[in-house]
């Protein structure tokens, strides 16, 4: 059985930075955001179903998903978000499970910004929250993407609150200092996950 650690945190919290460190320790990382993009690529049944339910306007002339149009639409109509997620979440889940079970490493990391919101934590043995204050999320995400602070605040508002995530997570890492301090906190957790995955194997 594969020991799965779900890694989460809000936008700009440092999930990619933490995942990259785990990859350096030869731990396979499956990224739910990457899978979410894969399942709506041209030719995928999920994209066909989105078009069937929402209409042709969701597609670019090339046939690819018009992400900007769809994002704006679901921001405006919360019911449409639920309708879209009812199509995408099962497909994402199935593909994640496939990739996780094929992975060849002592344990695997599932990195997902919406781990708890989408209940993906239920397929994990353990969850790890990369935690930073909202002010830092705004600073780091706006510096990285050139997105306005208002846009990032809007995204934060759609994500579960920091407090709720802190309550749900098994492990919490504080990423408000520098990267060296992030890695220092990840090291003992890596040892714990190695030990626990071995127990699961035996
Ligand atoms: P998203 O959900 O938006 O993909 P994320 O949680 O993956 O974000 P990262 O991309 O890892 O976050 O980090 C956001 C930005 O902050 C990046 O530019 C990253 O280099 C920087 N960063 C992350 N951790 C630290 C840190 N401890 N010190 C300084 N900069 C950091």
UniProtKB/TrEMBL annotation:
One of its GO terms (cellular component) is cytoplasm. ATP binds at residues 12-17. Its main location: cytoplasm. Keywords: ATP-binding, Coenzyme A biosynthesis, Cytoplasm, Kinase, Nucleotide-binding, Transferase. GO terms for molecular function: ATP binding; dephospho-CoA kinase activity. It catalyses: 3'-dephospho-CoA + ATP = ADP + CoA + H(+). The keyword Nucleotide-binding applies. This is Dephospho-CoA kinase.
């Amino acid at each position: 059985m594969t020991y799965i650690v779900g890694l989460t945190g809000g936008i700009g919290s440092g999930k990619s930075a933490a995942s990259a460190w785990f990859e350096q320790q030869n731990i396979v990382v499956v990224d739910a955001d990457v899978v979410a993009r894969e399942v709506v690529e041209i030719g995928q049944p999920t994209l066909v179903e989105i078009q069937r339910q929402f209409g042709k306007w969701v597609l670019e002339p090339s046939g690819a998903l018009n992400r900007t149009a769809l994002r704006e639409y679901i921001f405006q109509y919360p019911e449409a978000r639920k309708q879209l997620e009812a199509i995408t979440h099962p497909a994402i889940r199935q593909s994640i499970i496939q990739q996780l079970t094929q992975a060849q490493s002592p344990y695997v990391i599932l990195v997902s910004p919406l781990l708890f919101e989408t209940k993906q934590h239920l397929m994990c043995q353990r969850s790890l929250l990369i935690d930073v204050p909202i002010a830092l999320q705004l600073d780091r995400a706006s510096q990285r993407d050139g997105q306005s602070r208002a846009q990032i605040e809007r995204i934060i508002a759609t994500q579960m609150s920091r407090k709720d995530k802190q309550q749900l997570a098994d492990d919490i890492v504080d990423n408000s200092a520098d990267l060296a301090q992030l890695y220092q906190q990840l090291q003992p957790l890596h040892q714990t996950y190695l030990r626990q995955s071995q127990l699961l194997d035996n």
